[in-house]
Amino acid sequence: MSGHSKWHNIRLRKGKQDAERGKLFTKVAREIIVAAKEGGSNPDTNLRLRLAVQKARENSMPAENIKRALQRGSGELEGVNYEEVTYEGYGPAGVAVLVSCLTENRNRTVAELRVAFSRNGGSLGESGCVSWMFDQKGLITIGKSTIDEDTLMLTALDAGAEDIQSDDESYEITCAPNSLNGLRQALTDAGIKFESAELTMIPQTTIKIETVKEASQIIRMMDQIEDSDDVQQVHANFDIPEEILEAVAAG
Fold first, then answer.
1. In this predicted model, what pLDDT tens digit does every residue of 76-134 receive, in sequence order?
2. 11, 52, 132, 166: which could join 31 in a potential S-S bond, CB 3.0 to 4.6 Å?
3. Whole-prediction pTM
4. Are 122 and 89 in contact (CB under 8 A)?
């Protein structure tokens, strides 16, 4: 499992522990609005919307919030028009960073991102400068304590999984984007609980980070980028060894 994935999973668990619900609900509501506006308000025929609603429910977003977001996306309620924008750049050690946003104010968004990059030894780049280094995949994360690897492999590979990786705490299953819903359903039918299921961008190659200083800069930069309400997902191709991650966590 890559350093980026380890960081992402730490961030995911920390977010739950710290109850950062308000910020998460804002991001998920925007995704529901845009998905409904783009492909219709029926989750049965709109995969993007179905994944967004599932994410909302898995994170205990109130049903009324989900309903309002769907109504805004379908035009039943007046709402903000969000624009999908992807920004690309480089972090410390030449790490490639891809940032997916939903925003009603591009100027604000790019200003916030420019600060997050520049304060941590990085810089925004031109469109297309790093996106070619990533492939879109379905990604499902499962807590390692919930199931043994052999059982998981049998179920996941039969349902279209391409790869399964693990660290001390989690399994990470990747699949083709159009296989995500079927794989997710197969795991659910088998009684296998997962922490997250989403479409993501997986780096083709990674950059190994060898110093605590660079690792600290990267993690701080990623945290600051994700803290923006306009940012939906952040992808990067760094690989931070476990001992360096531990050193950063120790302060």
1. 988 889 999 999 999 999 999 999 999 999 999 999 999 999 999 999 999 999 999 99
2. 52
3. 0.85
4. yes
